[in-house]
Amino acid sequence: MSTDTTAKDVIVKVEDDRTGMSPETLRRAVLDHLRFSRAKTLSHAHLLDIYHAVSLMVRDRLVHRWITTAKTYNDTDARRIYYLSAEYLLGRQLEKNLLNLGLVDMARAELARYGVRLQDVYEREADPGLGNGGLGRLAACFMDSLATLELPAMGYGIRYEFGIFRQQIRDGWQVEQPDEWLRNGNPWEIRRHEYTATVRFGGRVEQSLDAEGNMRFVWVGGETVNGVPFDTPIAGFGTATVNTLRLWSARASEQFDLAVFNDGDFRRATEQKAVSESISKILYPRDDSAEGKELRLRQQYFFVCCSLQDILRRYKRYHDDPTLSGMPDKVVVQLNDTHPSIAVAEMMRLLVDREGLGWEDAWERTRAMIAYTNHTLLPEALERWSLPLFRRLLPRHLQIIYEINRRFLRQVHLYAPNDADLKSRLSIIEESDPKQIRMANLSVVGSRMVNGVAQLHSKLLRERVLKDFADMYPERFTNKTNGVTPRRWLMQANPRLRALITEAIGDGWITDLDQLQALAPQANDAAFLDAVRDIKQQNKIRWQRWLARKTGQLVNPEMIFDVHIKRIHEYKRQLMVCLHTIHLYRRIKFLGEDIVPRTVMIGGKAAPGYARAKKTIKIINDVANTINSDPDVQGKLQLYFLPNYNVSMTEKLIPASDLSEQVSMAGKEASGTGNMKFQMNGALTVGTLDGANIEIRDAVGPENFFLFGLNAMEIRELQANHYVPNEWLNRSPALKETVDLLDSSFFNPDDRWVHKEMARYIREDDPYCICADFESYMEIQERAAETWTQPETWWPMVVRNIANSGRFSSDRTIREYAEEIWNLPPVKVSMKTEE
Q: Is 13 tagged catalytic?
């Protein structure tokens, strides 16, 4: 270094190397990370090394913005939203972050200089399985929109070491394998030891009087677990904003008992460590056992406790406010479904026991800060915990919940003095044997606002699931229809369509999806329709090649791609899609009929303890094996179950799909977001009047939507009048013969019990009304197939669906949350801010 070089010059050079955006700087940064972060030269580097080096180069540029964003929020004393979710189904991060930074083309060109394909680098990234489906993917979309809209936000969740399981199919059955997504490291996260939180389980509560004569409670004894935070940057598109997703990892407070270890009892010495750290091992452990239920409760309290401690610490660091009276002006805590509902009791514990507030002040602040989103109409998903389990794990919280309930029931008494049944229904404590704690009730009582996630869902919450609460507190209930981020689900997932849309109307749609309305006239433009058709075909060929390489399954891109991808659940009715495929097979093989060639693809994971869902997967695979090996239907019909369905698979499949199966029984799906992704990418919906299907149909027009089935009111009336599925089955010769064929074990004579039992279940139980809706479903599928053969009708419908997908952007959803629930103004981050 020359004597003329100052320390300031050195700092500027380092910053340039870590933040510069020129091709030369990026190239040097990647090579430096290969050498100094991976200890490799380019000639010896594997694709995994290159992935890490490119990711670290991108992370450097995000960190610069990340630090500036945090400083801006602190300097402006910004009001912030803290989003608590048990799931974040993020998907791969490298491509998203390159797109958000505008570096995709540059990265592709620079890697090509060395004979490396950027797509191959993308494929080296693990797909983090930190969610099970729509709930986790929605949380990821919301984080993207929060950063893009420059809203001060922080997400909190659990850093599951293995996430959702990796699904294998053996002899047609689902087999769960650990999803080792962290095996090769995660370049996006930064470990924050200094913010480790302590979580207590068990023990006892001691009472005493303080100096002013007030009763105080101290929770002591039991076991403690440390929560170590790992931070991931979440970058906005076209902005300098980089928000934080903080995920907590469980670590034992004591690594092992040295005395026991030295005595030679190695297993017992490390036993407590293993128990403590099991909290963040996997997403949703089986809860069909007492141990599984206990682990689920531990997980929920663990991440809520860590997160609320962190929120309180952050507020106190920047505010001299002993009574915390100003905290509701700066803090909003959003509960993403019922999993984090223990936050109501935990916030009260922190404010009363730790901060010394009186009950009334603590309750006022708690209710002012917390809002609750309900995502389900299924009673079993509303979270109930047995009181004995709750008392053993969280004794102080049980006291707090009893006191919340006592005071709340006093309000109910004043509201309806002589209605004992109402008190029983609204009580947070269910007087069953054993008693249960109703966490959804706690969420509503302890929140300032409660929202559903689609117009029908919110209506059913108000009129059925939470009717008594909505009658008592009508001002608390609102609707916020879900949305998806167009950055990942159109811009990233469908680059060919992105380019066509941008050529036609400019690129403003990427952050203002309503601009897609400008495509509506293109539904009458033959050249544009031909271009859309060509893009769909190219995407189908891309999917064909990817699927063959990954699974060996060979689909025919000349057929209709008919797709149902969701978690496997009876109400989502994958079984109905399978039965319809059997019906088509019968028509070809036994009746000699022709059909419009069709490839049916079904993907999704069944919860490990959900036996009926696993049987559905088995039957789909058995039927698929028969159909795909039968020369009589070759070139006419295919059925595939897609193993280990995840975000990366979805990004390739949705742009290739022609028909989007949204066939849940009306009145059961909260919203759905897959329906929005399919619509955005030009697939036409076959669906019921359920969830957001209703709003999609309103947006695109009834003539551009394939509607079938009973509506929610008709379903309710049918079931109230003692629905007998066999009566409906006997009215439909096609369905009867289809179920009879299943019952005959034609599709797998070696596992006939599964098929016979499922046929019996359809005839005698059918809780989700497949038999009642099947004729209507058959008819609409015939109309869809006929429309497919009429390109002059089909492709204008496709364009109208794309053009009217703007209202289903998560940007719109988040704006509504920010304006109507959170009162959260945006904060502009400027990179000119001094460090």
A: no
- Going by C-beta distance under 8 Å and a sequence separation of 6 or more, which residues neighbour residue 527? none
User: 298, 339, 462, 567: which is the annotated catalytic residue?
Assistant: 567
SS3 content of the chain, % helix, strand, coil (to 5): 55, 15, 30
148, 599, 673, 685: the active-site residue: 673
The one catalytic residue in 677, 697, 755, 763 is 677
- Which residue, 295, 307, 306, is CA-closest to 393? 295
Q: Which of 65, 572, 605, 755 is catalytic?
A: 572
The answer to whether residues 139 and 88 touch, using CB atoms and an 8 Å cutoff, is yes
Per-residue pLDDT tens for 240-290? 999 999 999 999 887 655 555 566 655 665 677 777 889 999 887 777 788
* pLDDT tens figures, 584-594: 999 999 999 99
Cα separation, 398 vs 383, in Å, equals 15
Whether 293 is catalytic is: no
Length of the chain: 835
* b/e map 638-658, b = 16+ CB within 10 Å: bbbbbbbbbbbbbbbbbbbbb
Tokens, residue 10: 């050195």
Residues sharing a CB contact under 8 Å with residue 117, sequence separation 6 or more, in sequence order:
111
Residue 516 structure tokens: 């897609």
**pLDDT for position 716:** 96
Helix ranges (H only) for 607-745 are 611-628, 647-653, 674-680, 693-700, 712-720, 725-731, 733-743
How many whole angstroms from its chain centre is CA 456?
20
In 10 A of CB 539, how many CB atoms?
A: 25
Report whether pLDDT(833) > 60: no
* pLDDT value of residue 210: 81
Environment class of residue 720 by beta-carbon count within 10 Å: exposed (0-12), middle (13-18) or buried (19+)? exposed
Strand partners, 190: 231
Average pLDDT over residues 429-442: 96
567 catalytic residue (yes or no): yes
Active site residue 566: yes
**φ, ψ dihedrals at 252, nearest 5°:** -65, 140
pLDDT in tens, 91-101: 999 999 999 99
Catalytic (active site) residue 46: no
Which residues have a Cβ under 8 Å from the Cβ of 631 and sit 6 or more positions away? none
Q: How confident is the model at residue 835 (pLDDT cuts 50, 70, 90)?
A: very low
DSSP class per residue in 357-413: --HHHHHHHHHHHEEEE-----GGGS-EEEHHHHHHH-HHHHHHHHHHHHHHHHHHH
pLDDT, tens digit, 9 for 90 and up, residues 166-185: 999 999 999 999 999 999 99
pLDDT value for 647: 95
Residues 570, 725 contacting (CB under 8 angstroms):
no
What pLDDT does residue 256 have? Answer: 54
Quick one: pLDDT at residue 2? 44
Give the phi and the psi of residue 503 in degrees, each rounded to 5: -65, -35
pLDDT in tens, 200-219: 999 999 998 887 888 899 99
> What's the average model confidence in pLDDT over 491-519?
98
Dihedral of alpha carbons 685, 690, 691, 694, sign? positive
State mean pLDDT over 445-465.
96
- Dump the DSSP string for 6-59: -HHHHHHHHHHHHH--SHHHHHHHHHHHHHHTT---GGG--HHHHHHHHHHHHH
Query: Is the pLDDT assigned to residue 3 strictly greater than 60?
Result: no
- 828 is annotated as an active-site residue: no
Q: pTM to 2 decimals?
A: 0.95
Where does residue 211 rank: exposed (0-12), middle (13-18), buried (19+ CB within 10 A)?
exposed
Which one is catalytic: 92, 498, 540, 566?
566
